[in-house]
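ASSEMBLY PREDICTION REQUEST
Request ID: AP-0331
Submitted by: J.K., bench scientist
Number of chains: two
Total residues: 584
Priority: normal
Notes: Please return the full assembly, not individual chains.
Input sequences:
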Amino acid sequence: MGKTLAEKIFSEHVGRDVKAGEIVLARVDIAMAQDGTGPLMINEFRELGFKEVKVPKAFLFIDHASPSPRKELSNSQKMMREFGKEMGVKVFDAGDGISHQILAEKYVKPGDLVAGADSHTCTAGGLGAFGTGMGSTDVAIIFGLGQNWFKVPETIKVVVNGKLQDGVYAKDIILEIARILGSDGATYKALEFHGSCIENMNVEDRLTISNMAVEVGAKAGLMPSDEKTREFLKKMGREEDFRELKADPDAVYETEIEIDATTLEPLVSLPHYVDNVRKVSEVEKEKIKIDQVFIGTCTNGRLQDLEIALKILEKHGKHPDVRLIVGPASRKVYMDALEKGIIKKFVELGAAVIPPGCGPCVGIHMGVLGDGERVLSTQNRNFKGRMGNPNAEIYLASPATAAATAVTGYITDPRRFI
Amino acid sequence: MVVKIKGKVFVFGDNVNTDEIIPARYLNTSDPQELAKYCMEDARPGFGRRDDIKGSIIVAGENFGCGSSREHAPVAIKAAGISCVIAKSFARIFFRNAINIGLPIVELKEADEFEEGDIAEVDLENGVVRNLTKGKEYRIRPYPEFLMKIMEAGGWLEYCLKEVGE
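STATUS: Completed
Returned structure:
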């Protein structure tokens, strides 16, 4: 019987053939924590008596509140840097960008097992790696032992066929998946993506979809590793990290869902749950006024996202009442955007361009909302209070919808601006 | 591990997420007692600072603990003195984190039959949950065998170290 991608990757990391449902000890290739979860992870690591870091690639990322807005957080970050020096663990610091983007650019290889103390570690699935989020204790154990126990997940096969119409993007596909599955529809399971739309999609878009696998409860969101993966790795200067990796044709899936990309419309997730998804064309009629638009994050803060948004804004201009915040996902994205003149244009358009990092998405700094205010963001999560104020509303959509909304001041279908 | 837990019930809904359990704006520290003060803050403001939550039981709906991987969420609940969380279902990362830090959690499909203020009793050893106020009794699915082994080994790290070898 054939294997799913999850079964293949776990079999390689356990050293024997494993099947969905088995609980296994598996070695981990890449482990990481960020400044929210890292301090607790380091405390646990020390409490458990570990003396050295045994996972092949271990990283610490200071991206959640970076540069630090408060002395308490500064002290935690200082502690992370000291730990990094002591243990020989590389620390990515203020200005470097978001963990998931940096991992995708520099380190993740198809077939890797990646464990991070951050729920969006599933982003690595975009490169055909099994990335999954865990707690601080679990990651401390991986730092110390190089392995951990996992349940090999059952897999939901997600088939996306057809070509997206203009103005509809990868973000709309994952919002459609959230609408279908609901916020716990894939709990304990992996998503595995198939179909012509996925095959024709670049890795940047695949990362957007995999990033939000956790929003339907999934443990991982796995893309095939194919020629598109090779192209991406080549662009990142590490083509040698490529290998083809696909599920077996006779793999066994728990369920299968199918999405017709050709009929998909721009979608928006309404407060306060990611699966509260509606068509932008319908919501537009309600003229929901938006105070702030945020284009960035590990979901949609890549170069092509900025380009898509800029194209619309350049042509139509920003509404004077909308605060526009733009956050490149990494130093590389920032540099590329600088070289292409994208940052200059955003600044001229009246945007606040913030340093690479999580920015306002985590609700600590750089764009906390006032009471009763509404934000439309390209991020992955719209829980009450997520962006720092439980009395604010968060709407989630693609960079194109975000840009169209920044043009008009209310939630707007981007198709008429393209 | 405490095998029999009894306490007053506080009822929460579906999809209680980690941003509600412990909002990021209070994550200035890893100190459990500090985190406890803001436990469930965005689901029920002031909850963590009430005098009557010590020893109580949180009862919730589907997908409890969804969202971020922050272990601070179960840590805050445990440090606030909550003795157990009963929910219709749990998000994966929260479930693992709770087991790892020793917060008893129980999946119970009939969780919505509890009302605020009911007295619940959880018998982990025999796999029974009782609503003492309403005089009802429910069988619960015991922890998976592997997790029971972890507990028998005296904790997850001990089990892992033993399995991995020196």
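REVIEWER COMMENTS: The first strand of chain A starts at residue 23 and ends at 27.
SIGN-OFF: pending second reviewer
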